[in-house]
Amino acid sequence: DVQLVESGGGSVQAGGSLRLTCLVSGHTANRYCMGWFRQAPGKEREGVAAINIGGSTYYADSVKGRFTTSQEKTKNTLYLRMNSLEPEDTATYYCAVDRGVVCLTRLVSQYKNRGQGTQVTVS
After folding, report:
1. Phi, psi of 67 (to 5 degrees)
2. Burial of 25: CB neighbours in 10 Å, binned 0-12, 13-18, 19+
3. CB of 109 within 8 A of CB of 47?
4. Contact status, residue 35 vs residue 50, Cβ threshold 8 Å
5. Among residues of the chain, what percentage have pLDDT more than 70?
6. Given this model, what pLDDT does residue 79 score?
7. How far, CA to CA in Å, does 48 sit from each of 26, 74, 88?
8. Which of 5, 9, 22, 25 has its CA 20 to 30 A from that of 120?
9. Is the per-residue pLDDT at 30 higher than 90?
């Protein structure tokens, strides 16, 4: 079974930065897409970023230029670097992975495997 565990969330002031980490285990697909989505209370899930096996990245317009996702394949780890955080970024952030899917940011919340989430609060 594929398991994902996020860490790195916390509380920061507006303008601050955080780096989220997602440790992935049990995932061996050769063709996959990994990414991040978030959900704030009372709001729909929003895909934030995605990255495919070749390293191509995709971002939601709301975070473009501020967030960067990357992967370290040797460590089975996915990262989300978040700069210039805004109160509107407050949400629970989840990482997700699936195989044989179209790698689009808006689809990440639908991927088969996801973590338990980590809370990010910006004030």
Report:
1. -110, 145
2. exposed
3. yes
4. yes
5. 98
6. 97
7. 24, 24, 13
8. 25
9. no
